[in-house]
Specification:
The complex is a heterodimer of chains A (222) and B (483).
Chain A (H helix, E strand, L loop, with lengths): L4 H23 L3 H26 L3 H28 L11 H25 L8 H17 L3 H23 L4 H29 L15
Helix pairs in contact in A: 1-2, 1-5, 2-3, 2-6, 3-7, 4-5, 5-6, 6-7
Chain B lengths: L1 H20 L5 H26 L2 E3 L4 E3 L1 H30 L5 H23 L3 H19 L5 H36 L8 H6 L6 H19 L7 H8 L2 H30 L3 H21 L5 H22 L2 H32 L10 H4 L1 H14 L6 H16 L3 H25 L14 H15 L3 H14 L1
Antiparallel strand pairs in B: 1-2
The chains are: A mainly alpha (222), B mainly alpha (483).
Chain lengths: 222, 483
């Protein structure tokens, strides 16, 4: 491994930023800020991927970094902003549990994720193995965000941020998946986002709101 | 190789053509023709694999062995018969004003996209592409489930998207872990995600990583299989989407997701040499069987009823593959085939019944045998078949699974028998008045498209009485592959 400690340091720093942003998203009440935080997370992901690429000479990771930059920093946040403008929704995000409580659960999840990652990190021989725990933690935090948010758009941002965590896991544990798979995943994310955009309009048309409490009618029959 | 390209090429071309002309009157016929072409290519592929052995083509990108080739043939066949059923069904839906031409175009195009993703998931050799295909299948079906744009269908589609999206993200993490374990042996360039390569080195894969990977893969793909407790999306998606979609969801998607789980299990078993994967699959399978059987009696919507029955049967199949061994795997494969044929036949009949009476509520449907004898008999025979009555094929596979369980897993036998009994009582007591009860509804003005129903049921009957030697041989080879 021809990596100097500096690169490893930088990657660790970016990993820490990624985790911090995941927590920030968990604590954020405003939808617009949430989107910006998501874009920032994408930026951290793209730069860490680029640094790993530079440090290890894995050419295909540059493509992966570029893809992340285009998709997660530019395209998706732009789509989300557009969507919010068109739907004219700027409401605050209400959670099912209050924010301090969510943060506490988040901390427990992070500890859990680190413990889970220990046996795998020991097996990894990549420069970035220390960050696997962080990747897992941010996946779990996004998961928590999806569970605790009641409105449609924050749930989707949680979903996308989970994808970020997964990508980070892929780069930190294995220097990225084969290109064809990464392209496929990126395509799926993009198409999924477009479908959801259409979907939001439908939901709003039907229910006059994007609050998911309207979507709780299909329950088990008595 | 040309066969593989044809199997995948027809649906993708069909999706494009139907995206352009899907709203025209003839689109439904075009849909049938494309599905027929896909089916014929699948038959050609099958014949080739049977006569020349497994195929590994296009830079190891596609891999066909006895295990997936029979699923390819089954998928293409059910896709074809469903398109025949969907032709009159969707026309009537349109006449009832439930669909606009634009939605019909979306429906036809997405139907082909869905077929394509199913076949791609089955044929690919790359575990990453398998994931991508299943995710794409989720997206296509989200659009299909929400086709009517009613509040209930939007809710079902949203639930489906979020639950399966989260589930499939877990599977992606599992795939990453798998790649992580394999990359050290095969190198980043050596195709560390190719199933054939993984299978060749499975004995040396790191057991700790693989066991963690399998948990994620099972939870992820298990969500799509509809295993309890990850099954919440399944009844809603089945009940709120158009009936042809319910038929392909139950008949195809669940099978393909289970196929993904089994492919992973083969690798994990090779690496771990213990009963870790076995235990997990048996546990999830048994839980699904028991929970679904007891929830059956609480259903009031006919499509939800049969959706729960699908969960029960997927549980049985998962249990069978978990138990392992040549006989159990053989039975699992047979059950996959007969379940998918029978369940799609039932949904065809249910679809016509619900369309005729204008409701999906069980209480609202009465006396089908007077309204239309074909629908009535189709439904009652299909129900008997799915409940495991001899001489239908479901009986044969369930019997094999039960006898193996008595031998290998004695604890499971009473649970299985009890659940099958409960399911029988619950489903039959609901279907019986629907078919034979009194009614004052008029006879159907049009002839329902019942040919697919009876073709499916005839095949299931045949599989119960006599399995053609080539098919039995095929199942045996596949069962050996699964181990």
């Amino acid at each position: 491994m021809a990596a100097t400690p500096l690169w490893a340091q930088l990657i660790n720093l970016l990993a820490a930023i990624l985790l911090l942003l995941a927590f920030a998203m968990l604590a954020q009440r405003r939808v617009l800020t949430l989107i910006n935080l998501f874009a920032a997370q994408g930026l951290a992901l793209a730069s860490s991927t680029a640094i790993v690429a530079f440090a290890t000479g894995q050419r295909h990771l540059y493509w992966s970094a570029g893809l992340t930059l285009i998709l997660k920093v530019a395209l998706l946040p732009w789509l989300l902003h557009r969507l919010i403008r068109k739907l004219d929704v700027r409401w605050d995000v209400e959670g099912l549990i209050n924010i301090p409580m969510t943060m506490l659960i988040g901390i427990v999840l992070v500890v859990f994720a680190f413990n889970l990652a220990v046996p795998i990190s020991q097996l990894a021989n990549t420069v970035t193995r220390a960050t696997l725990g962080i990747a897992m933690a941010s996946v779990m935090l996004s998961f928590l965000m999806m569970i605790t948010r009641r409105k449609a758009i924050p749930q989707v941002i949680g979903f996308l941020s989970m994808e970020n965590g997964l990508f980070f896991a892929a780069t930190s544990a294995t220097y990225g998946m084969p290109m064809v798979v990464e392209l496929g995943i990126a395509l799926d994310v993009l198409v999924g986002m477009l479908i959801l955009g259409v979907f939001f309009f439908q939901i709003r048309e039907q229910f006059d709101s994007l609050d998911l409490k309207h979507l709780e009618h299909l329950k088990e029959e008595e | 190789m040309i066969e593989i390209l044809a199997v995948l090429g027809f649906p993708i071309a069909g999706a494009l053509v139907l995206a352009a002309i899907g709203h025209r009157g003839r689109a439904a016929t075009v849909n049938v023709v494309i599905c027929l072409a896909t089916f014929l290519s699948a038959v050609a592929l099958t014949v080739r694999v049977i006569s020349y052995g497994p195929l590994l083509v296009l830079d190891r990108l596609f891999f066909v062995d006895p295990f997936n080739v029979f699923l390819v043939a089954l998928t293409a066949f059910v896709g074809f018969t469903t398109s025949i059923f969907s032709r009159p069904y969707m026309r009537i839906e349109r006449e009832h004003g439930r669909l606009t031409p634009a939605r019909l175009r979306l429906y036809h195009s997405m139907y082909q996209v869905f077929n394509f993703t199913m076949l791609l998931a089955l044929l690919t050799n790359n575990m990453g592409i398998l994931w991508v295909a299943l995710e794409a299948a989720t997206l296509a079906t989200v659009l299909l489930v929400s086709l009517y744009r009613t509040p209930a269908s939007l809710e079902a589609a949203w639930k489906y998207f979020i639950l399966c999206g989260v589930g499939i993200a877990q599977a992606l993490f599992g795939t990453i872990l798998l790649y992580f374990a394999a990359e050290k042996l095969l190198g980043a360039e050596g195709g560390a995600l190719l199933w054939t390569e993984l299978n060749a080195v499975k004995g040396q894969l790191e057991p700790t990583v693989l066991s963690l990977a399998f948990v994620f893969l099972l939870v992820g793909y298990g969500t799509k299989v509809g295993l309890v407790p990850l099954h919440n999306w399944l009844p809603d998606a089945h009940a709120e989407g158009p009936t042809p979609v319910s038929a392909v969801l139950s008949g195809l998607l669940l099978n393909v997701a289970l196929y993904a789980v089994v492919r992973c299990k083969v690798l994990v078993d090779g690496s771990l040499h213990n009963s870790f994967a076995k235990g997990l699959m048996m546990g999830f399978g048994m839980l699904s069987v028991v929970v679904a059987a007891f929830l059956l009696s609480r259903q009031r919507d006919i499509k939800r009823l049969f959706a729960y029955s699908s969960i029960e049967h997927m549980g049985i199949i998962t249990f069978a593959f978990g138990m392992g061994g040549p006989i159990s795997n053989f039975a699992g494969l047979l059950h996959m085939t007969v379940h998918s044929l029978t369940k799609s036949a039932i949904f065809f009949a249910v679809g016509h019944a619900a369309q005729k009476t204008g409701t999906q509520l069980i209480d609202g449907i009465r006396g089908l045998i007077t309204i239309s004898p074909a629908i009535g008999w189709g439904l009652v025979l299909g129900t008997l078949a799915i409940l495991g009555m001899p001489p239908f094929g479901v009986f044969a596979s369930e019997f094999l699974i039960l006898t193996t369980a008595i031998h290998d897993q004695p604890w499971a036998t009473p649970l299985l028998l009890l659940s099958l009994g409960v399911a029988f009582a619950a489903v039959f007591s609901k279907v019986q008045p629907m078919v034979f009860g009194d009614t004052n509804a008029a006879r159907l003005p049009h002839r329902p498209a019942m040919t697919p129903v009876f073709v499916h049921l005839a095949l299931v009957l045949m599989l119960g009485l006599w399995i053609p030697p080539f098919l039995a041989d095929w199942y045996r080879q596949a069962a050996k592959l699964i181990g």
